[in-house]
Amino acid sequence: MNNEIRNANGLTEQEFIDTYDAGKYNDNKPSVTSDVLIFTVQSQDNAKDFNNLNDKKLKILMVQRGDFPDINKWALPGGFIEKGETSLQAAERELQEETGIEEVYLEQLYTWDNIGRDIRDRVISISHIALVDSTELEIKAGSDAKDARWFGVDKKITRIDKQITENGYIKHKYIDLCLINEDIKIKGEVRETITVKGRARKVKLEVLNKKNSQIAFDHAMMIYYGLQRLKNKVEYTDIAFNLLPELFTIAEAHKIFELTTGIEYTNQNFRKRFDHMMIETNETSKKYSPRPAKLYKLNINWDDEE
After folding, report:
1. Are strands 56-65 and 145-165 parallel, antiparallel or unpaired?
2. Which of the two residues, 3 and 142, has the higher pLDDT score?
3. Quick one: average pLDDT of 211-232?
4. How far apart are CA 143 and CA 241, in angstroms?
5. Cα–Cα distances in Å, from 306 out to 238, 274, 301?
6. Exposed, middle or buried, 241 (CB in 10 Å: 0-12/13-18/19+)?
7. Which residue intervals of the chain are DSSP H helices?
8. What is the pLDDT of residues 91-149, one digit of tens each?
């Protein structure tokens, strides 16, 4: 007796696959890219003392496009996902090609699928976020890019408009992004629209004045979204330690957490909030102070102690 499962048309699974028409539902398949927001912490470009923690800045890697579309504009490192490759594998490949390193913190951030986001065709981007220790980096532009540089990241909310509706509200938040590398300053403007109807909440991001922006495609809103995700995750995970060397001082860790969250912690509050994530070692360093400072390392079992 044949017990094979058949569908309503009397087909087995193999027969269904053999006769499946991939173009039935989408005869114009979109292209898919993997783009990577690579963050690190370095001294500001005009810093006189590279061992001064007060001169440290959160930076993002950008590449200058060498071809259309958006030729000469600055974009996130990325590229089309190759056959037989996952989006994460593509992100790892791009990270290795642009920075020369691998096996770092990397996670999927968001999928961007707005119609018309690329003039070439329907292109969907799966973005990822990577955090790297700057001491391990050696950046280089890929074969299709003119240049690759680290840019300091600044964002500023310039305006908030809120309209009360019958069962909720609509709030528009306008954000200016400014990326700076020595004499190069590139800007982007993002609008975040939050629509609340009862219990339902919807968030939409848009790039404004895109034609006049030196940030390619819709990468300005990817950067804004990535900064928000980073800020939120630092509060309840150990991801910020990926921006530190294996051994670090409390002062270094304190500065990293302030740069990623935008929150100024007192020494007491910082230790109270994050002390369980760090283990004191027997080593010391004079890198950031004339007197030896104790070195710490990540407590990889920190979440077992909560």
Report:
1. antiparallel
2. 3
3. 96
4. 31
5. 13, 11, 10
6. buried
7. 13-18, 87-99, 219-234, 250-261, 267-274
8. 999 888 877 777 788 999 999 999 988 888 889 999 999 999 876 666 666 666 688 89
CA angle 142, 147, 150 (to 5 degrees): 100
* pLDDT tens, residue by residue, 154-163: 999 999 999 9
C-alpha 224 chain-centroid distance: 9
Cα separation, 149 vs 182, in Å, equals 10
Picking from 189, 155, 153, the residue whose alpha carbon sits closest to that of residue 172 is 189
pTM of the model: 0.89
Tokens of 211: 């034609």
> What is the chain's length?
306
Longest dimension (CA), the chain: 85
Answer whether residue 306 shows pLDDT above 60.
no
What does the pLDDT read at residue 136?
Answer: 62
Distances (CA, A) of 264 to 56, 163, 171, 279: 14, 32, 27, 22
Token output for 73: 């504009």
